[in-house]
Amino acid sequence: MTEARGPAGLNGTTHTRHAPGVPCWVSLMVHAMDTTQEFYGELFGWEFEPGPRQLGPSARALLDGHEVAGIGQMPPDQHLSIAWTPYFASDDVNQTAESVRHCGGTVGVGPLDAGDAGRLAIGLDPTGAVFGIWQAAAHLGTGIIGVHGTPAWIELVTRDTESVVKFYQGVFGHGLEPVVSADFDYVTLQSGGRAVAGIHGVGHGLPRDRGPHWLTYFEVTDVDAAASQVTELGGHVLRAAHDSAYGRVATVADPEGAVFSVIHTDR
Questions:
Q1: For the chain, first and last CA: distance in Å?
Q2: Do 186 and 179 touch, CB atoms closer than 8 A?
Q3: Among 197, 169, 128, 148, which Cα is nearest to 40's?
Q4: Domain VOC: where (predicted)?
C-alpha cells in the first residue's frame, strides 16, 4: 500500500454507468475455478452466477445482488501469471484499442464481444503491465463499492512513473496529480476531478518475478482478521497488516498466487 491513494468511496455506493477512463471492473483468470470461488466466497462473502458463455467457463461474483468481480477458467494449455486485471471503461473499445497501439502499448486480446454484456479488449502498456478495456452494454461493471468485499482502489506498480504516465493520459485522457516528495515516486490518475487510480514507481524494488503490474485493493471490515483468514484458506500474507495514511492494509496472495491487498479505509 502506498501512502498516496485516493478515497475508496462511500459505504454502499452503487454505480450505474462508469465514465470513460474510470476503473469499472476487475477479473481473475485461474486454473481451479471451484477452489478459487470457495476462497473468495469465504473471504469476501461473494456468491456466484455464470458469466457470459462467449468468454468460456466464467463466473461473476455478487454481493447482495450487485456484481463486483469476475473469475474465469484459464485454458489448461496456458501457463500465464495468475493476476487480478483491472478494466477501464470506454465508450468505444475499438477506438480505445487503437489508442493503445498508437501510444506504444499492445492489444493482446480482442476487441471482442461478450454476448449482450458488452465488448472488451485486453491491453499491455509499454512496460508490459496488463489491463482491460470494457465497453458496457447489459453489464455495466462493478455495481457497488465501499463495503466488505468490493474493489477499493487500483495501483500500477512499475519502475518509475515518468515512463508510463503519458501512455495512460493518451489512451484514457486521465489528468495527473504527482505527489511532491524527494523520495516517493507516485502519481494519481484523475477523472472528473477525482483520483481513480495510482501509479507507484518503486525503482529496483519492483519484483523481478512479476515485472510492472496492476495491484487491486479490496475493502474489508477488519484487515487483521482478513489476513489471518487468507492463510487459513490456503493463501499467503506477503506484507503484514499495517497502518497507512488511508487506513489499515495488508498485501496477500490467494492459493493460486494472485496478489491483492485488503484495506479498511478511514472515512
A1: 17
A2: yes
A3: 148
A4: 22-136, 150-265
State mean pLDDT over 244-266: 94
Task: Locate 251 and state its grid cell.
Answer: 498485501
pLDDT confidence bin for 177, thresholds 50/70/90: very high
- As annotated, the residues of the chain forming the CATH 3.10.180.10 domain(s) are 13-144, 148-265
Right CATH for 13-144 from 3.40.1280.10, 3.40.50.300, 3.90.1640.10, 3.10.180.10? 3.10.180.10
Residues 70 and 27: beta-carbon distance below 8 Å: yes
Q: Is there a contact between 252 and 261 (Cβ–Cβ < 8 Å)? A: yes
- By three-state DSSP, how is residue 12 classified? coil
Torsion angle in degrees (nearest 10) through CA of 75, 120, 51, 152: 100
pTM of the shown model? 0.92
Name the amino acid, one letter, at 140.
Answer: L
- Transcribe 62-83 into DSSP letters: EETTEEEEEEEEPPTT------
Q: pLDDT tens digit string along 53-95? A: 777 889 999 999 999 999 999 987 777 789 999 999 999 999 9
CATH-assigned architecture of domain 148-265: Roll (3.10)
pLDDT in tens, 121-172: 999 999 999 999 999 999 999 999 999 999 999 999 999 999 899 999 999 9
Q: Which three cell numbers stand for residue 4?
A: 498516496
The 10 Å Cβ neighbour count of residue 86 is 23
